[in-house]
Amino acid sequence: MCRWLAYSGTPIRLDELLYRPRHSLIDQSLHARLGVETTNGDGFGVGWYVADSMAEPALYRGTGPAWSDANLREIARSTTSPLFLAHVRASTGTPVQQTNCHPFRFQNWLWVHNGSIRDFALLKRDLVLAVDPELYPAMTGSTDSEVMFHLAVTYGLRDRPIAAVQRTAGLIESVGRAHGVPDPLQMTVATTDGDRIWCFRYSSEGRSRSLFYSTGISALRTLHPDREMLRGLSEETRLVVSEPLGELAGAWQPVPESSYGVIQKGDDELSRFEPSMP
Fold it and tell me: For the Glutamine amidotransferase type-2 domain, which residue ranges apply (predicted)?
């Protein structure tokens, strides 16, 4: 379906993750190992924040394959950020157009999604009508992912992100049941306000798409004391990815089924995710 990554920590150039690792996100756009599709060439996007700022993030999206976009390479090698989301897309049926490429942005929030709403065309009307009318003009594309984002904003993403996504998932499953759609929701999601990152792994069928988080920097330094790249990273540095960017022993931990995590200053959180009715 898609591949994405979320990074928070010591400011780094975007290309350190998008291009340089052996199994970078750009490599995954051509050679995904754990995704439904091997190739994710139906567009891409990256959204990033300026250091020490929670202002509206910058956004660059394109409709071509990420591996061949020269402008993305130029931006990635010259842009430094402490927090960014990136996404390579494999369409589940909606058109390949810029407004359908992730990340989606609303004010200072970004959202990326891998997965789908089953039979979205059948459920779309009911779901869109549940979006706050004041948010409707902000929806410029046609994907299930963008509708999910605006439902989450409707249900309080800016104040209570976890509850908002739980309510979004609950609504989708309720509407799915009403229309006789089995197992309507499949999702791994990352969303951020520029300070914290919330990540979710859930599916109605209980077999969600792959998702991993990086091992703590202190533990990695102990495991790999000779790795120069680890010395310049703060203890707060963390990555969440659809699939590992490399094969460094002990570097990646699977996100448990039906769970959410919060990347934040101090201790991160990992807990169970359960949909709830709005």
Answer: 2-278
Using alpha carbons, list the distances in angstroms from residue 116 to 91, 93, 164, 239: 10, 10, 18, 23
pLDDT on residue 231:
85
Q: Check pLDDT > 80 for residue 8.
A: yes
- What percent of the chain has pLDDT above 90? 92
Contact call for residues 243 and 212 (beta carbons, < 8 A): yes
Q: Which contacts of 122-129 are long-range, i.e. CB under 8 A and separated by 24 or more positions?
A: 122/179, 122/181, 123/172, 123/175, 123/176, 123/179, 123/181, 123/184, 126/175, 126/178, 126/179, 127/151, 127/171, 127/172, 127/175
- pLDDT on residue 111: 98
Q: What mean pLDDT value characterizes the chain?
A: 96
Cβ contact 168:146 at 8 Å: no
Q: How many CB atoms lie within 10 A of CB 23?
A: 16
* Alpha-carbon 50 to chain mean position: 19
Does position 54 have pLDDT exceeding 70, yes or no?
Answer: no
Fold of 2-272: Glutamine Phosphoribosylpyrophosphate, subunit 1, domain 1 (3.60.20)
Rounded Cα distance, 253 and 244, in Å: 9
Strands (E), the chain: 2-13, 44-48, 58-62, 80-89, 104-106, 109-117, 185-192, 197-203, 212-214, 238-241, 252-254, 259-263, 269-272
Q: So what's the pLDDT on residue 229?
A: 82
